[in-house]
C-alpha cells in the first residue's frame, strides 16, 4: 500500500481550533494561552485548580531495543490514545517534545507517523512554543554567569579544574563536544577547556520536567552544581545567584503545551529529555494534569524498556508518587529480525527464522516489566513488509508466556487500527491493580548496588566495573549525602548491553562505567556507561539534506 508522506497526511488533516480541543479535555478557554489556532499553553493556576480531581489510569508505552529508525513507540502511543477514545474511554495523550537533533539527523521528527500523529507536526517538530530555546538559554545563562564570576575575581574560589557545567545547544554537533573558551586576551575571560551537550541532556531539561511548580523549579535550579571550589565543596547555581533569572527564562515554558491528534483528541506535548543520556520522560506537570482531566492517560518513555521505562518507573514514579496501571511494549518484525542477525539493509525481506531468534530480546523486556510487578501487553506495530508467518511467531510466543499480544495498524488506519490493542489494555488494567507496583531497588541501597541492580536485572549483565577514579566518585557521593538518590543510566539504546553491536539478548558481559555525574537539582545520579556521549553527531547523510521550503512557504521533506 502506498501512503502519502507523514507531512502530507498532516497537512491534509482537518484540525479543530485548540480552544475546542481544550473544551473536550475539560479546560476552560480562560486557562489557555494560544500560540496561533492549533497550539496553546495551559496556565499553572488551572493545574492547581484541578488538584482535587480524581486520578485517571496511567498507561506507559515502551518498546524493545530499536533499529536506528525507531519502532513506532510514539506512533503507537498516539494510535492507542485515539483508539481508546474511539471505544468510549476519554483519553489524553502525553508525549515529549521533539529535539532538533534527530529531526535533522537520522530519526526524523517525533510526532508519530502515518495516520497516528499529533499536529501541527511541522511546527511541533521545529520551534513549537519555544520551550527548548528557553531551556537552552537558561542553561547558557548559568554558564555565562559562571565564566563572568571567574573573570570578576572568583569570590567563590572555584577550582578551574573542577568545573562541571557545560553549555548546551539543541543540535547534533560533534565539533562542540570538547572546546576551549576564553581565548583572545584578558577581556574575553579565563581560558579553559569546556564543551557542549545537546539541550535534551542538560540538567536544566531534567529539572524542568521533574518540577511541579515555579517554586520547585527555582529550588531545583538553585541546587544544580556547576563546579567545586579548591576545598572540593560544591558551587551551585544559587551560589552564583543565577537561579532566579533562570526561572524567569523558564516561566512561560513550564506551562504544559496542548495540541491534538489527527483524530482531534487532546495531547500534551511538553519537555523532552532523551532516554539514552537522560531520563526520557515528558514533564510531570503534563502527566499529572492529564491524569486530573481524563479517565485514561497514555504516555511514552524513550527508546527501549531498558532505558525509558526503567527510568520512568525508578525515577519519575519514585519522585512524584505515580503508579502505572498498564505497560505496552511495542515490537516490530523488522527489529526482531535485526536482533535475530539480519543486516539492516535486508530487514524488508521475510525471514521467520530470524524473528524466532530475535524474540529473545522481546522476552527479556517482558521479564523486565514483570520485575516491577507489572504485566505488559505487547503491541505488534505492523509494517507492509511483514508476513503473516512472522506475526504468528510473535503472537504464539507471547501467549506461551501468558502475555496479551495484539496487532496494531494505527499507522495506516489511525485509531481504528488500534482498537483491539485498546481493548486488551483496558482488560489488563481491570485485571491487574496498580497497588502491586514495586521499584527495582530501594532508596537505602548504595549507589553502586543500584547501578548493579539495573545492570544485572534489566540488562542481564554479570556485573559492573569501573576504575579506581570512578569508584572514588561513587564513594564521595555517598559521603556527601547523595546515596539515597536513584540512578539515571546513560547507555546505547540499540542493545541491552553497552555495546550496540551485541543484539538480541546478550549474555556473559559486564557493564563498564566510564563516569558518574551528580544531578543534584534533578535529584538523580547520571551513570555514563560504555561509549555513550551527551552530544550526538550527524550521520553521513543527515535528514536535514532533504528538508526545504516550497514556493507556498510550506516545509517539505520533514517526516
Q: In words, what does this structure look like?
A:
With 559 residues, this protein is α/β, with parallel strands linked by helices. The chain has 3 domains: 6-130 and 253-430, P-loop containing nucleotide triphosphate hydrolases (Rossmann fold), CATH 3.40.50; 132-249, Domain 2, N(10)-formyltetrahydrofolate synthetase (2-Layer Sandwich), CATH 3.30.1510.10; 447-529, Formyltetrahydrofolate synthetase, domain 3, CATH 3.10.410. It is 36% helix and 19% strand. The chain has 19 helices and 25 strands. The strands form 6 sheets. Strands 1, 2, 3, 4, 5, 6, 14, 15, 16, 17, 18 and 19 form a 12-stranded mixed beta sheet that branches. A 4-stranded mixed beta sheet has the order 20-22-23-21. The protein has a 3-stranded antiparallel beta sheet with strand order 7-12-13, covered by helices on one side. It is globular and about 70 Å long. The chain starts with 5 loop residues before the first helix and ends with a strand. The mean pLDDT is 95.
The CATH topology of the largest domain comes to: Rossmann fold
Task: Give the termini separation.
Answer: 18 Å
Number of DSSP helical runs = 19
Largest sheet: 12 strands, mixed
Mean pLDDT: 95
Shape: globular
Just name the CATH architecture of the largest domain: 3-Layer(aba) Sandwich
Report the CATH superfamily of the largest domain: P-loop containing nucleotide triphosphate hydrolases
- Our Rg estimate from Cα atoms comes to 23 Å
Subunit arrangement of the protein: single chain
Low-confidence stretches: none
Task: Find the count of extended strands (DSSP E, 2+ residues).
Answer: 25
- CATH classification class of the largest domain: Alpha Beta
Helix content: 25-40%
| Beta-strand proportion | 15-25%
